Amino acid sequence: MKRRSFLTAVAGAAFLTACGAGEDDTGTAGAKITLGFSAWPGWFPWQVAQEKGLFAKNGVTVELKYFDSYTDSLNALATGNLTCNSQTLNDTLSSVSGGSKQTIVLLNDNSTGNDQIIAAPGIRTVADLKGKKVAAEQGTVDHYLLLLALEKAGLTEKDVTFTPLLTDAAAAAFVAGQVDAVGVFAPFTTTALGRSGSTAVSTSKDFPGAIPDALSFQAQFVKDHPDEVQKVVQTWFDTTAWIKDNAAEAVSIMAKKGGVSDADYKTYDAGTTIFTKEQNIEAFTPGGDAKHLDYQANKIAEFLVSTKLVDAKPPLDGLFEPKFVKAVR
C-alpha cells in the first residue's frame, strides 16, 4: 500500500480509464463527483461519510475510489480521471509543476507525528544514521521527511545508503533487520515499531506544518460546479462532527478500512491533526509562518527544486480557494 508520493509519473491510459471519473462528472450541473483517497488517518473519514450517508444528506452524488497505490490516485487526478483527490500539498505542487490544473478547496489535516523515521536499537539520533542503510519509498513524503531530517542534522542523502522500497516492503525489511532505519507512515509505523528496541528518531512533529493533507479538485470542475464542491466540503465538516459524537463507531469504520485494530487506530490520533473550519480559514489566509498554506507551499516548492525532485517551481496563482470553507455552516 502506497501513500503520499510527491513524484508523479503518468500511468497507463488503460488503468486510468478503468478507475476514471466517467464522462458525466464534469458535463452537467449536479454531476457525479469521483473522490479518490488512500491509506492515511486524515483521509479515512471519507469512508465514514459514505457509510453514514452524509454525502446523500447534503444532496451530492459522490463515488469514492480507494487506491492501494497512492501514486495511482495522483496520476488519476493529474490526467483528469478523478474529479478530486485527497493528497498532500507536496504532491499537488509536483503535479502542478508538471502542468496539471488543480485547486485546493479543503485542508483535511496536518501530519503531526504519523510520518516517522524509525531506527534500529543503538541509533538514537538522525546524526547516528550516517553510514547506515535507510529504506523508504522513493518519491514519497516519508522520503521528503528523511531529507528534511538529514538536512536539519547537517547531513545529506549521500551520507546514508538510501534503499528505495515500497512502504510496506520497507517496513518489513526493517523488521527483518535488512536495513538500519526506515521512513514510514501510519499504519506502517505500527509494523516497523514491532522490531524490538526500535524507536522514532524523527517524525513530522519535528517539522510543524511541513506535511499538510488536502482535497484537490480539477480546477475546471471548481469553476463549472461550485455548488457541488461546496456540498463536498460541507460533508467533510459534517463528518468530522459526526465522528466527534460517535467516536467508537467511527474508529471501527476507519480501522477496518485501514486494516488495523481499533486499538492501533486510536494510537494514530495525536499524529494526525484534523483541521477545524477556523484552522482551515487561517491556513488559507496568506501569512508568514507555518500555519499558512502559501508560506508552506513556497518552502516546499523551493525544497523540491533544490533537491531536483521537480524541474521548476510550480505557479501558486489560483491554487488555493478559501471560499468553500468560509461558507461552511
Automatic annotation (TrEMBL):
One of its GO terms (molecular function) is ATPase-coupled transmembrane transporter activity. It is found in: Periplasm. InterPro entries: ABC_SsuA_sub-bd (IPR010067). Its main location: periplasm. It comes from the Bacteria. One of its GO terms (cellular component) is periplasmic space. Transmembrane segments: none annotated. Residues 1-20 form the signal peptide. Keywords: Signal. Pfam families: NMT1_2 (PF13379). Belongs to the bacterial solute-binding protein SsuA/TauA family. This is ABC transporter substrate-binding protein. It comes from Dactylosporangium aurantiacum.
